[in-house]
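Why Sulfurtransferase? Reviewers of the renewal asked for a concrete example.
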Amino acid sequence: MNHPGQPPTASVSELPADDVTLLDVREDDEWAAGHAPGALHIPLGELPARVDELAKLPDDKPIYVVCRSGGRSARATAWLNASGWDAVNVAGGMKSWHAEGRPVVGDHADVPPEIL
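Here is what the prediction returned.
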């Protein structure tokens, strides 16, 4: 559900089961702890300087933006949409991604949900 002034938002269950274009804006330590396979990692603070990296993503579908719980990704989504991208915030972030049983890869074999 979208509210005026809020960026477009989708829950994890609304995302495509495969071939989803995911941008993870968490910090390096959060990314290393566990992330979605195939996601692009650009920490929120680096996004304006690294936005050109998004050009390699498919331009025929939205970029789903994720963080730990949805706050940073909402800011990134708003900025991206204002900059001409088609971006959607992932409600609940990686916590919801993990809770929904979506795949997570990381530097550790067993990813505890509290660090996502």
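The longest strand covers residues 87-91. This is the kind of structural detail the renewal will allow us to pursue systematically.
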